[in-house]
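INFO batch 0412 | record 1 of 1 | parsing
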Amino acid sequence: MPEAKGGHNLFGHAVGIIMLDTRFARIPGDIGNAGTWDFPVLYRIVEDATPLRVVRKKAEGLLAPFLAAAQGLASQGVRAITTSCGFLAVYQGQIASQVPVPVYTSSLLQIPLVHRMVGPNRKVGVITVDSRFLTQELLGQVGAADVPLVVEGTEGGEELTRVLIDGKEDLDVAKAERDVVGAARRLVQRDRDVGAIVLECTNMPPYSRSVQRATGLPVFDIVTLTRCVYGALQPPAFMERSF
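INFO prediction complete | emitting tokens
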């Protein structure tokens, strides 16, 4: 048997997840529900990093604690790091440059790839928790400033944005699903050239299947991205199978 290497307190987690400071319910499919993952993850919460502060105040003043959280996760042995809010793309370059493992702060990093997949004559739809704050500056951080997008938010809905941003703890799941699916339907009605959809919000993956069924389009979210990253960290052992 090979020698087991130590140096950490905890073992077996490939992906580290930096969490905002929240109290709302997180159902399976949400990044903050451990049951979402079929592999171990390690969480770390950044105190006082509320969704309101991150989404609507551009995470101002929070770079240092998020960087400390990322470095702490790396020191615990994770091999890749993500976050629980797509708007933290604002710190993508700064965190990735200071941490010795891959960092993907946001599901929005998939946008350039998705656009290549659907072709130059199609557009990428983006559903976000608040479209008013999904700026060109933020999109530039993920290499999407020049990608043709159609953006729709759930801020006009009755449940999801209100729970996530305004501090409500309990979640009416059916209403939240209607908010996300309604945004998806509005998006494709506005522009028939949308070829795929990216969900910005890490609380939206529970509704990805409903969005796909409602629109007929491929749906990408933080779960699809994290599974892709995990597959790169832990490739299948094909050579150990019989030929």
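INFO post-check: The radius of gyration is 18 Å.
INFO record closed
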